[in-house]
Design brief:
The complex is a heterotrimer. Chain A is an alpha+beta fold. Chain A has 2 domains: 2-54, no CATH class; 62-379, Cytochrome-c3 Hydrogenase, chain B, CATH 1.10.645.10. In chain A, 49% of the residues lie in helices and 12% in strands. In chain A, a hairpin with a 7-residue loop joins strand 7 and strand 8 (338-342). In chain A, helix 3 (71-79) packs antiparallel against helix 4 (86-101). By secondary structure, chain B is mainly alpha-helical. The N and C termini of chain B lie far apart (98 Å). Chain C is built from 7 helices and no strands. By secondary structure, chain C is mainly alpha-helical. The chains are: A alpha+beta, B mainly alpha, C mainly alpha. Chains in contact: A-B, A-C, B-C. Chain A binds chain B through residues 3-4, 24, 26, 31-32, 41, 46-47, 133-140, 142-144, 147, 203-204, 207, 209-210, 212-213, 215-217, 219, 221, 223-224, 227-228, 354, 357-365, and chain B through 58, 61-64, 231-232, 234-235, 238-243, 377-387, 447-448, 451-454, 456, 458, 460-463.
């Protein structure tokens, strides 16, 4: 990154007032960087000529900690990575270890896992929408989004006792049965949610100021996405139809019908539309799932002590922010030898430089918002 | 009277010619002095309560409650805020220009307050007697506020403050042009710059100028939002932008002065719009005679209804102190309602009726205008600075110029050629709207062309 | 008498700020003092019942020209050019100007044989009601007697605006090529 900025300095030194290029620091403490992210912007007047991200302010050594915990003990740690979508993190980890153990999870557990994960996807996208709109100046959608998210968090609290860092799943299945009224709560939320999405659409989608701030801002072509490894809504908004829920189905996704929204332009507006449509599709999955939750056990054949045979596994799921991957190496003991996590935000953040070149300083905030990064995931 | 105190006072006052001169001065200018003192004393308090109203409205539109703790329903919040700001430590950055740092917020506030001197807040409530250049004075002096902004940004000795100040000033100057041109359209209809003459013209023509020049009103609405740095034009002072604005280094009471200056400016701009477009102190349907008495008693009834509502809410307050405070508020409302009703009942005081009612309607319209400001702030996202300037120069200014022509043509058609006034207005308004659609279409094409990024060769596999 | 008080106040402010303006080291302080001078002069205009001139002074001079001055002072670094230019005859010219002003002052006092405020320099201002409103009188004469100069002036302003836009744009083009 540093080299590319120096290259730019020698090639494009003809700035407007003949002044040197200005390096502006969007420091770790900033209302709009969504966490402790430091972005060094190389500016020529108003235009951004290059960026350099400095991360690591939230590094907690999660992967090292994993080497000293048993598999079950490590499960709460993964919630704290992408703290906005904790349930997805848990799903990825539990499924990875189950793949390592080659144990099958009963269908009832898989269906309930799917419902909770899709609700979490909606919650994560609501946080994204509220904060993104707030950065661009719309003050009101934030409160509406958090009001909806409150309903989802209530469901989580009723289910497992925690709202944010849920630790909802266990290796082998679920610990808790779905509570009485689970289907009713989810159904009520989904029925209300359609109307609420319409609220957001009314406020933002057709608004010419919103379109002016997001169209053609932060364009990322499909080739660039694939080359940089950007996944999730960013990849889909650039036109690539790749969603792990359809391509490599996990949990119970192969039982339900849903669509993958694709964008055309790869700009901020398309990412906004893709995520809005994803919320609608998640709602659709939830409604289909609660119609028919199969009866049965919720825990597979996993003993109290998890000691997988030596080997390695890589398992990835479609988290709300992109492809979340777990690479687990086992050496035969109760503690993993190595857990390497591929966080979607970490890889997506590297696309920031390409997206922001040539734009104005005011667009930096919009582009960081549209990347939907969570620093807990980026830094681990 | 031959009361001993007045006799003594008379002796003292007639001692020297200077005292006599002072007394003569006071006798001729006492109305203006009282109104001036009321404005200077009341505007900061009113601005504080406008901030409270904004917070409560914002909360209401965002499905929450807003300030509730300080006083019942947060009614004492502005006072708590003012006390807090006054007792804050006064920090001046070390490398800042101390004199200008001190001076800049003062300019901002003084410009706003001085421009209120020419505004008629009702047929009788004003500081300056009817000056010949009424509206021009208000606009010209309130535009001096830019000095406060730019000097404040400079004195902070911070790169971001200067950038924010320069941007804010550029925005102000551009939209002032558009606003001024929009005002000219209304002035064409009134034929005079005097404030009294403008409102009298609306009274004589039996219609508010809003209906005769709607495009001008809309243009002035947009321009005034940009002039007071309100959303969606508040990029220079929004904190999610890198430039934190000219007010960054100011804390405590200095910041409060800036803030109050901004809200006082809002009141000034709303007053200008009310005078020019919304009929000033005229009540709705001011020429319908049989509505004289019902509409005349309406202000008193509304205020009394507010008092009744306060008593109703008082019963629901959780704490005794808040209950007592609500009763105080209710009694104040009833007191004001009584003041409004007394002239109707006591014959010699009849002369006060137009003054009181006029003030009520004027303030009501100003409040509606400011409500629209706040409503837009909570609904719309922010414009980027280049989009903002593009909107001002490419759309609003041409639209305002075309509107001057169209209002002139409408006047010519109706006054010289004798057409029906409404027909002329509708024709020319349709023409102006067509022009504005054309401008917006051109603007969209330009915006989509301008926001495409400069071509950087894509080499994703490079290191 | 009120008139005199106001006049002395405005004139005093004007003279004081003008003096401060030429003696400040900081360019921005000078600009602020110039603003104060201009506002004081506007006040004197208002006293002479020339209210349109008063507001034009404020809107155009303070609100337009001083904006330009202040922008330029803030955006352009003035230290470098100042060291380059040395005008050797500065003191000589200053002495000449002071002598001329003093001569003028003495002549005025001798001719008037009165101090300012005693009736000569402040003409008895015309009674307010008999004067037509300033703006209307100005507009009438501008559009009837002085129509040609008005049109020429507007064309001149248009040329200046177009020239400024062209100059700003061409700079941008050369620096990006």
């Amino acid at each position: 990154m540093a080299d590319s900025i120096q290259n730019d300095a020698s090639q494009q030194n003809n700035t407007l007032l003949g002044a040197d290029e200005l390096v502006l620091n969007m420091g770790p403490q900033h209302p709009s960087t969504h966490g402790v992210l430091r972005v060094k912007l190389k500016l020529d007047g108003e235009r951004v000529r290059g960026t350099e991200c400095v991360i690591g302010y939230l590094h907690r050594g999660v992967e090292k900690i994993a080497e000293n915990r048993t598999y079950q003990q490590f499960a709460p740690y993964v919630d704290r990575m992408d703290y906005v979508a904790a349930v997805s993190n848990g799903l990825g980890y539990c499924e990875a270890v189950e793949k390592l153990l080659q144990v099958e999870v009963p269908i009832r557990a898989r269906v309930i896992r799917t419902i909770l994960t899709e609700l979490q996807r909606i919650a994560s996208h609501l946080v994204w929408l509220g904060t993104h709109a707030l950065d661009i100046g719309a003050l009101t959608p934030l409160f509406y989004c958090f009001r909806e998210r409150e309903e989802i968090l209530k469901i989580f609290e009723k289910y497992c006792g925690a709202r944010l860092t849920t630790h909802a799943f266990r290796i082998g299945g679920l610990q808790y049965e779905s509570y009485d009224g689970f289907e009713k709560d989810v159904e009520r939320f989904c029925k209300d949610f359609e109307r609420r999405i319409q609220d957001y659409v009314d406020l933002l989608t057709g608004n010419s100021i919103w379109i002016g701030r997001t169209r053609n801002v932060g364009v990322l072509s499909a080739e660039d996405c694939i080359a940089l490894g950007a996944t999730g809504p960013i990849l889909r908004a650039s036109g690539v139809k790749w969603d792990l829920r359809k391509a490599q189905p996990y949990a119970a996704y192969d039982r339900y019908e849903f669509e993958i929204p694709i964008g055309t332009n790869g700009d901020t507006y398309d990412r906004y539309m893709v995520r809005m449509e994803e919320m609608r599709q998640s709602r659709r999955i939830c409604l289909q799932a609660i119609e028919n939750i199969p009866e049965g056990a919720i825990f597979g054949k996993v003993g109290k002590v998890i000691k997988p045979a030596p080997g390695e596994v890589y398992h990835s799921i479609e988290a709300p922010k992109g492809i979340l991957g777990y690479y687990i190496v086992s050496d035969g003991t109760t503690q993993p030898y190595r857990v390497r996590i591929r966080p979607p935000s970490f890889v997506n953040l590297q696309a920031l430089d390409k997206m922001i070149r040539g734009h104005l300083v005011a667009d930096v905030v919009a582009v960081i918002g549209t990347l939907d990064i969570v620093l807990g995931e980026v830094d681990r | 009277m031959s009361h001993p105190v007045t006799q003594a006072l008379g002796c003292v006052l007639s001692i020297s010619p200077t005292m006599q001169a002072v007394v003569a001065f006071l006798k001729t200018w006492w109305v203006e002095l009282v109104c001036g003192v009321v404005i200077v004393a009341a505007v900061p308090l009113v601005a504080g309560y406008v901030v409270l109203v904004e917070r409560k409205l914002m909360a209401d539109m965002q499905a929450r409650l807003g300030p509730m703790r300080v006083g019942p329903h947060g009614l004492l919040q502005p006072i708590a805020d003012a006390v807090k700001l006054l007792i804050k430590e006064d920090i001046i950055p070390r490398d800042a220009d101390a004199f200008i740092f001190w001076f800049a917020p003062v300019i901002s506030m003084v410009a706003a307050l001085t421009s209120m001197g020419a505004i008629y807040f009702g047929p009788a409530f004003r500081v300056a007697q009817d000056i010949n250049i009424g509206i021009l004075f208000v606009i010209g002096v309130s535009s001096l506020g830019f000095l406060g902004i730019i000097l404040g940004g400079w004195a902070s000795n911070s790169h971001y403050s200067i950038m924010g100040a320069l941007r804010s000033t550029a925005q102000l100057v551009s939209y002032e042009t558009a606003g001024g041109l929009a005002i000219i359209s209304a002035l064409l209809l009134s034929g005079s710059l005097k404030i009294r003459a403008i409102v009298d013209a609306q009274s004589d023509q039996h219609v508010w100028f809003l209906f005769l020049a709607p495009v001008a009103f809309f243009t002035y609405l947009v321009a005034s939002i940009a002039e007071t740095n309100r959303a969606p034009f508040d990029l220079p002072e929004a904190e999610s932008e890198l430039v934190a604005g000219y007010m960054t280094e100011y804390s405590g009471f200095r910041w409060a002065l800036y803030f109050l200056g901004e809200y006082a400016n809002m009141i000034v701009v709303a007053s200008v719009a009310t005078t020019l477009f919304l009929g000033g102190w005229l009540r709705p349907f001011s020429n319908v005679r049989w509505l004289d008495i019902p509409m005349g008693v309406l202000p008193a009834l509304l205020i009394a209804a507010l008092g009744v509502y306060c008593i109703y809410r008082a019963g629901k307050q959780p704490v005794k102190v808040q209950l007592g405070f609500m009763w105080v508020v209710a009694l104040c409302c009833f007191g004001v309602a009584v003041i409004y009703l007394v002239p109707w009942l006591v014959a010699p005081l009849r002369f006060a009726i137009p003054g009181l009612n006029g003030a009520f309607w004027f303030l009501f319209k100003v409040a509606v205008y400011i409500y629209v400001f706040m409503w837009l702030r909570f609904t719309l996202p922010r414009y980027r600075f280049d989009q903002l300037m593009h909107l001002g120069w490419y759309i609003l200014i041409p639209l305002a110029i075309v509107n001057i022509f169209s209002v002139g043509i409408a006047m010519f058609l109706s006054l010289e050629l004798g057409w029906n006034r409404w027909l002329a207005v509708m024709l020319t308004t349709a023409f102006t709207l067509a022009v504005s659609l054309l401008l917006v279409r051109l603007h969209d094409k330009h915006a989509s062309a301008a926001s495409s990024t400069s071509a950087v060769p894509s080499d994703s596999y490079a290191g | 008498m009120l008139d005199s008080i106001f006049f002395y106040f405005f004139a005093g402010v004007a003279v004081l700020s003008a003096g401060l303006m030429v003696t400040r080291r900081n360019a921005l302080h000078s600009a602020v003092c110039l603003v104060a001078t201009l506002l004081a002069i506007a006040g004197i205009f208002l006293q002479l019942r020339a209210e349109f001139l008063f507001i034009t002074q404020i809107i155009l001079y303070v609100g337009g020209i001083m904006v330009l001055f202040i922008f330029v002072i803030m955006l352009v670094r003035l230290d470098a050019p100042i060291h380059q230019i040395r005008f050797r005859l500065q003191r000589f010219v200053a002495v000449l100007v002071i002598l001329a002003l003093a001569f003028e002052g003495v002549v005025i006092l001798l001719l008037a044989r009165k101090l300012p405020g005693e009736g000569l320099l402040i003409q008895g201002s015309a009674p307010a009601d008999k004067l037509p409103p300033n703006s209307e009188a100005l507009a009438k004469s501008l559009f009837s007697d002085y129509l040609l100069p008005f049109e020429i002036a507007s064309v001149l302003l248009l040329v200046a605006m177009v020239g400024a836009v062209v100059m700003a744009k061409s700079r941008k083009r050369t620096s990006e090529s």
